[in-house]
Amino acid sequence: MAAGKLSPRQKMINLMYLVFIAMLALNMSKEVLSAFGILNNKIIESNSITDGRNESSFQQLSQKAVDQPGQFGEKRAKVEKIRALSKEFNDYIEGIKTTVTTKFERDAEGNLPYEEMDKGDLIDRMFFTGDKVSAKGKEFLDKIHNFPAQIKAIGGSSIAEFEMKKIEKRFATNQVYSEKAGAKLDWIDYNYKGFPLIATVTKLSQLQADIKTTESDVMTGMFQSDLVAAASLTAYQPIVVLEKSVFFQGEAVKGKIILGKFDPSLKAKSVVVNGTSVQAQAGQANFSFGSGNIGEHPITGSFNFDENGKVISLPIKDQYVVVARPKSATISADKMNVVYRGVVNPMTISFAGISADKVSASAPGLSSTGGGKYSMRPGTGTEAVINVTGTLPDGSKVSDRKTFRIKGIPSPAGTIRGEMGVVKGPKSSLEISTVGAKLVDFDFEVGLDVVGFNFKVTGMPTVVVQGNKLNQQCKSVLSKVGRGDQVTISEIKTKLVGAGSYLLPRTAPVIYEIQ
């Protein structure tokens, strides 16, 4: 196109062709910039998920440190320091991202204008002074370079050597060979000089991802040694499992000793309980001895194993309590010291030292829900008497009884839009609102239905309504009121959900002030 003398028409055609090529290149560039933006969002989303996973892991570690401070307390302290170090580094990088993107306006979904972030001058001016690295650039490099060393100083031997090398490689800042330049370039030049801003922001987000991954790897790696130790017999703990926690005087104390990590193929060389050898079975040993006097008694001994030519002894240490035979039952209302008519009253009924399946209770309206739990629906009258009978291990019976007061459900308060007292709002809101009722400071969860009410505006006739919403007559009256006028909702008729025609006591009115 450049050869020979061209006519004005040909020159115009050539110019249009160049503009067309330029537009194609521009569109391609926008697609690449958008791709970086989308990738950046994906990394940020992944970082958020990793944050949640790391927090969950740390909370589990913290609980273990509370339960077993000797084993996990020191590791928790180290992880806490590493998490603080990671947060400081992450926040530093986030500060850089915020600085270089401040002038760009985000859209309604919080996305940056990726296609406008095609220049790299903001980062170039921050990290470089001419051809040299600026003070801010050196600070950035020092943060990256020092991060693995700081982690190693905190974690020490708790971090495996291979894991530490992986972290050091992840944050290495060695020179990188550039095919384009045909030579090795400084790491910061190779990764950050002359790139579109959105590409650099994406790289910074990836660096944050590396920080969070490192934090996760450190926590995971610290527990690898625990998993290895768990394979050894020294990790097993004998557990005393009694038939019940309390025994009556004269009964035999029965139970078994099992290992915390049960293995059917595991057999002990010997088991000693309270100075007496007992027969060892697959991972457990059954025992039986006299209960003794009333009070606390120790259970001691050892599980003995052969391992690598040595005898490994795992100590047994527990205790049991002997109590006198019961003479009275324990009966308690789960909510309060009365039972309410019209609702289900949950109750717990038991005899000390007697299993729930050996205890029976009876009263009008009382039914068992299993495991010592009962439901009480009192009927008429002012009192409910509950009779309880328990069967002792020797077959003998013990019994007791208790009287409860029966009270009615207290009066509810009327509501508009779920609000009580004086409610303010526009007429349009009242027209579509539902009249309801609420029990204030009542310990039971109950459903209430409003089946009718009176609608009254001063100076106008009262409208009697069936249901829980304003009818057409109410709306007609409402159209004549003005700002500041009050509408009184009274004579509210309230029923319990599922209680048939049973109406609650008078429901307190609610007032709606027109605004």
TrEMBL record:
Residues 328-407 form the Gliding motility-associated protein GldM second immunoglobulin-like domain. Residues 229-323 form the Gliding motility-associated protein GldM first immunoglobulin-like domain. InterPro entries: GldM_Ig-like-1, GldM_Ig-like-2, Motility-assoc_prot_GldM, Motility-assoc_prot_GldM_C, Motility-assoc_prot_GldM_N. Residues 410-498 form the Gliding motility-associated protein GldM C-terminal domain. Pfam families: GldM_1st (PF12081), GldM_2nd (PF21601), GldM_3rd (PF21602), GldM_4th (PF12080). Residues 31-224 form the Gliding motility-associated protein GldM N-terminal domain. This is Gliding motility protein GldM. It comes from Flavobacterium franklandianum.
